[in-house]
Every structure is written in structure tokens, then in C-alpha cells.
Amino acid sequence: METYRLDGKVRLDHYSPSRAGASPAILLLHGSGGPLRGIDPFAEQAAGMGVHVFALHYFDRTGHTWVSPRQIEEHFLDWMNTAGAAVSHMLSLPGVDHRRVGLLGFSLGAYLSLALSTRDSRIAAVAELFGGLAEHFAADAAKLPPVLIVHGERDPVVPVQEAYKLEEVLKKNSIPYEIKIYRDQGHSLTGLAQLDAMRRVAGFFREHLRQAA
User: What does the pLDDT look like over 32-91, one tens digit per residue?
Assistant: First the structure.
């Protein structure tokens, strides 16, 4: 793993594939609880499959390790712009295919991923888990790339209605999408649901980042 500092402040971890040549890249955006500590197992596995994976510690921009709901609105645009800067840095690196950039966001990171994708045409696909599209960005939803929606039916943090609202917006704007709602699951997935979601995310990026090429 290699680590960069955006503006000398924000940490961006890079898990690079071993194969030569231009490869797809996926940017991971964590939720309100903050990033994982240590090596990210998903990132390491994806890199082993020939994908550049970047994990952005966007809370470094505002000095947080976690945030409460009332802090999110205040800093949302700062974090979104930081994610955009991370995409720019990713695309400046050798071996990253400019046409095959995806975002994978969890909860708050899912909201950020979708919001940024209404403003940034460099993003070819978004997989959002336990999130939704903030109302302020819904007017630009026609600019979204293909989207994968993953949600728990019993999510107590982000209600599953957010997933269905996003689905309606995507339908209205003729955006390609996939949706999977897991019964008896909450704001995270366990057991077979977790394994199935990982398979869906991998298949979604495999399809849409390959198509982007």
C-alpha cells in the first residue's frame, strides 16, 4: 500500500494491482464512523483482481474522526470537493485508466459518491451501500452514471425508503441501475447477505467499468 497526502493534509491510500498496463480504479468513501483502521480487506482483494483501489480519509479535511448527523450538512461540500480532488489525483497516476473510474460509498460516503457523480463526468459507475441522493443534487440526477443500490430493509440509520427514492429518481432519468434490498438486515450486512453484496459489487464494477473502456 502507498499513501499520498492531498494538499499535504488528506490521506489517500493506494492499493495497486500487480499487472502492467492501464487498469480501472475505484475510490472508497467511508461512512460517518470514519475509515477502517489498518489494511482494508476489500481494497486488498480488489487490487489482487487487477483494480487500482484508493481509500480516501476525507475527514482529515475537517479534522474529524467521526461525525454526528448535525455536523454532516455543515461539512458535506468540503468532503465532496475533497473526493473530487482525490479523483483528480488518481487520474494523474500512471496505470489508471481515465475512462474506468468507479466510486464505492458506504452510508455518508454513499451520499457523497452520488452527489459528486452529478457534478463530475469522469466517474463511470457508482456502487452505493446504505445511502441515498441528497435532495439538493436530485435536479442533476440525469448526469449520474450507472448506479448499484444496496440497502438493508431494517436499516435504523438511513431508512430503506432512501433506496426506493433513489430508484425512482434513476428510473425517471433513465439511468441504468441495479438494486438489492436485504430482508432482516440493518445498516450493515452479515452472513450470506454480506457475501452476496460483495459479489454484486464486484460484478457491477466488472460490467460497467469494462463497458466504459
Answer: 998 866 555 666 666 677 899 999 999 999 999 999 988 999 999 999 999 999 999 999
Give the count of beta carbons closer than 10 Å to the beta carbon of residue 156: 8
From CA 169, how far away is CA 84, in angstroms rounded? 23
Q: Which helix (H) or strand (E) holds 45?
A: helix 41-48
Residue spans of alpha helices (H) in 50-157: 69-91, 108-117
- Nearest CA to 203 out of 155, 122, 145, 146 is that of 146
Q: Which triple of cell numbers denotes residue 112?
A: 457523497
Cβ atoms within 10 Å of 107's Cβ, excluding its own: 22
Distance CA 79, CA 118 (A): 15
Tell me if 15 sits within 8 A of 47, measured CB to CB. Answer: yes
- Tens of pLDDT, residue by residue over 139-164, are 999 999 999 999 999 999 999 999 99
CA 40 to chain centre: 14
Sketch out the chain's domains with CATH numbers.
2-212 (3.40.50.1820)
Measured CA to CA, the distance from residue 192 to residue 87 in angstroms comes to 32
Give how far the C-alpha of residue 205 lies from the chain's centroid of Cα atoms, to the nearest Å: 11
